[in-house]
Amino acid sequence: MTGKNHIGAISEAKACVWLLSQGFYVFNNIMAHGPADLIAWDSSDNTIILIDVKTIRFNIKKDGTKVYPNPYNKYNIQHPNVKCLAYSPDEDLFMWYVDGIFQS
């Protein structure tokens, strides 16, 4: 069975590939701990984005709609200058988590 750290590392690697396909230059944060996993640079407008990659699993409500959990909890807080990129391995889907809402 794959451990939690391995799942996170796989999600980060997939996020790198996805971000590259979106036109970003991608760099790994070399610090073992910190708010950002990746650093992405958009050369078209010269912006740098600090990214925290989160692996999420959806739940199905009784009415059949999908519900994605908040990727942050009381032990894991979102930093204001870091964007959250959520990855759903069940759907192989990336979504930005902005102001409490998932955006494709």
Give a quick set of tags describing it.
about 100 residues, alpha+beta, Trna Endonuclease, Chain: A, domain 1, six-stranded mixed β-sheet, two-stranded antiparallel sheet, 1 helix, about 15% helix
Walk me through this protein's architecture.
The protein is globular, with a radius of gyration of 14 Å. Strands 1-2-3-6-7-8 form a six-stranded mixed sheet, covered by helices on one side. Strands 4-5 form a two-stranded antiparallel ribbon. It has a single domain, classed as Trna Endonuclease, Chain: A, domain 1, CATH 3.40.1350.10. By secondary structure, the chain is α+β, with helices and mostly antiparallel strands. The chain contains one helix and eight strands; from the N terminus they run αββββββββ. The chain starts with a helix and ends with a strand.
Write the H/E string, N to C: HEEEEEEEE
**Helical amount among residues, as a percent range?**
10-25%
Name the strands of the widest sheet in spatial order.
1-2-3-6-7-8
Rg for CA atoms:
14 Å
